[in-house]
Amino acid sequence: MKKTIVFILVVLLSAGMLFANGQADKSGSKDTKAEPAQEQIVLRLAETHPADYPTTKGDYEFARLVGERSNGRIKIEVYPGRQLGEEKAVIEQVQFGAIDFTRVSISPLSAFSPNFDALQMPYLYRNAEHMWQVLNSPIGDEFLNSLEPAGFVGLSWFDSGARSFYNSVHPIKSVADLKGLKIRVQQSALMVGLVEALGAVATPMPFGEVYSALQTGVIDGAENNWPSYYSTSHYEVAKYYTLDEHTRVPEITIASKITMDKLSKEDQELIKKAAKDSMDFQIKAWADYEKVAEDAVRANGNEIYELPDNSAFQAAMQPLYDKLSPQLKEVVAKIRAVGK
Ligand code: GTR
Question: Which of 186, 192, 232, 290 for mutating ligand 1's site (highest number of atoms within 8 Å of CB)?
């Protein structure tokens, strides 16, 4: 009896295998003879952060969704850790189609599309929720679409928390404490103006050069969110961190317009949707890592100063608002009105 069952099982299993092989052969011959397989499209995405950083995790999720929804026909290769260059140089390459996608901070992007300054003004948002209300409103989409004349297709937003100052000289407890400090900023005119408005000396510099500049004393400090302060190890060489939260600067994923124009309308839509659908994943990864970073920096014994009141910082930055063009002033007013 047992033997008979085993025999039947073996027969069934081999039949199953034959069937599976048959299927493979069938689809194989279908691909190669009747209808040639569609060619795989391989696209590259540049990311400044390392592979385990939350924005990079968001990039991988975007790539995964595109791969899954196109049945592997469109492959997005993510290059983390500045392998394809520093942000400004990467944006230039995306502009002329040498790199297909990048995830960047909107600060360096504003050199290519100056309206983006309106989205990263100091103390613009009441809190994180307000920023997300804006980005998820038609205003957010208008910003994404506004990149086309500069040669980009804006795809999606990622979280980047709030940026604050850190330095290796002394705790910053008031605007006066910033006076004369050499502070690294992203390659953005607005960020230069922001640091100068506080009486410090702005030093624009690519992200990857900041650690050694801090270590060798070329600069006294920089500004960033918890995850970047931690993941870059800047916290090891600049131990004073003041939570002034001067800006919330959204991260953005952009595509080269040259790349997108070569794709079918359906593929363009698939990519746009996948990018938007990767946002929740990144926002969750961000929240998790922000906590990990803060805990690690505090455990390291860094001196963290929580400003009881940031009104003096806010007042010092008013000249930046006064300098905005009438159009951007209007956009700022629209942003402020969201959720009120
Ligand atoms: C980070 C941001 C990076 C880069 C960096 C910088 O917060 O995620 O894309 O812009 O700041 O300060 O250069």
Answer: 186
